[in-house]
Amino acid sequence: MLELVKVEDPDADGGLTLIFQENKKLQIKLVDGKLVSEFT
Fold first, then answer.
1. Distance CA 28, CA 39 (A)
2. Are 18 and 7 in contact (CB under 8 A)?
3. What are 26-38's pLDDT values in tens digits?
């Protein structure tokens, strides 16, 4: 389990980005009324 380091709300795309240790990111945003997430 990774530790949460930082929260960007809103991020550059107008969504929410959770930044974890090891620079892993979870980006969440609304697209056409639905939540879309991407983990990188």
1. 9
2. yes
3. 999 999 999 999 9
- Token output for 9: 């709300």
Q: For the segment 3-29, what is each residue's pLDDT rounded down to a tens digit? A: 999 999 998 889 999 999 999 999 999
* Distance of alpha carbon 11 from alpha carbon 39, whole angstroms: 15
For residue 24, give both structure tokens: 């892993």
The pTM for the full model equals 0.83
Query: What is the rounded CA–CA span in Å between residue 11 and residue 18?
Result: 9
Helix (H, G, I), strand (E, B) or coil at 33: coil
